[in-house]
Amino acid sequence: MTSTSLKVILGLLGKLDDSTGEDTPRGRFLDYLKGNVTEVGQIRDYIDECLRSSGDLQFNRALQDLVTHVGRFLGFEETIPGRYSGVQGAIGFDGLWKSPTGLSIVLEVKTSERHFIKTASLLNYVDELISEKKIPSWNEALGLYVVGRPDPEVRQLEKSILAEKNSERLRIISVESLLSLAELKDEFDLKHEDILDLFRPSPRIDPAVDIMKGLSAVPAELQAPPPPPVETGAPSYWLTPVKSYEAQSAEGEIKELVGENKVFAFGERTPGRKDLKPGDWICFYASAIGVVAHAKVLTKPEKKPHPKVRHPEEYPYTFELGAPQLYVEKPVVIDATLRNQLEAFRERGLSPDRAWGWFVVGNKQVSKHDFELLTRSKTGI
Length: 381
Fold this sequence. Notes:
This protein is α+β, with helices and mostly antiparallel strands. It folds into two domains: about 5-215, Restriction Endonuclease; about 220-375, Roll (ph1033 like fold), CATH 3.10.590. It is about 35% helix and about 20% strand. The chain has helices spanning about 5-15, 25-35, 40-50, 55-75, 120-130, 155-165, 175-190, 190-200, 205-215, 250-260, 335-340, 345, 370-375; strands at about 80, 95-100, 105-110, 140-150, 170-175, 235-240, 265, 280-285, 290-295, 300-305, 315-325, 365. Strands 6, 7, 8, 9, 10, 11 and 12 form a seven-stranded mixed beta sheet that branches. Helix 3 (about 40-50) packs antiparallel against helix 4 and helix 7 (about 175-190) runs parallel beside helix 9. The radius of gyration is 22 Å and the shape is globular.
């Protein structure tokens, strides 16, 4: 079980830097990852912790090594860490994955794409690795940007790649989709070659991963058990994920909709939309952050687009909320310790370190017990 936080581990190891050798903070960190981080759920916990602390240099450097380590879960035979800081005479790539098929993927890890990113840097890294014969040629290489907090409206990287005609050489994937891909491989025993096929067709990989997530049914042993039947008129309890849009973070979206306007919206295919009723309680999960708010449902979702809802054509079914409680500054992190207490995991005998992304994908009903743990509150419930 991942009971020790990344903050504690990094504190014990010391400051991560580019010093080489096994008996250095980075050397010990890489050894720890190889020997102890063997489940997808573990690495999701650590990456989420890095994204929650993305302004901290130590966590940014740890994120780079964690993303490189994800390659092991995708079937790459070698995962080679790069440099934290660029220096003259050294190639400044962030990480390198080598496939048994001969394909090499050179990584550039970014916490966000809010700032302009020059694609020439990653292209140069690949060219230099080819010159030094560390990878064969561009015919067997790709450059991959892994973005912690992508900006779906700006799409600066994707636009640059297409405008510069580098769509055959460069790819982009969000950290969330990368972890989902690792979970899909783990849960459905996808072949490594199937994973590689997703990296080839177009610059942005996320849409293909989203399709796979939508089409794949969660295996029975990973499904949350149905909550116990409730009496007629008794409240049901819900957990719903919220993603970032444009320049608005998921937390900002929740503050604006739930906290200020006391409203939320579902799409046509949102699971449970027709079952949500007045008197129910719903909590809101911000990706890589945790549960940051909950509220009481006052009305059934109706097809009445709300002016404050972004992309109302996608989310036209709105419903009113009451008694909103926000705790964005102190989110409830769904870590291994909490997962071990949740009935959704415990009653199925699931290890808290197993892939757990399924629990926060799509609106779902949870038990009252789990809802109270997810919201740290029994007030008014």
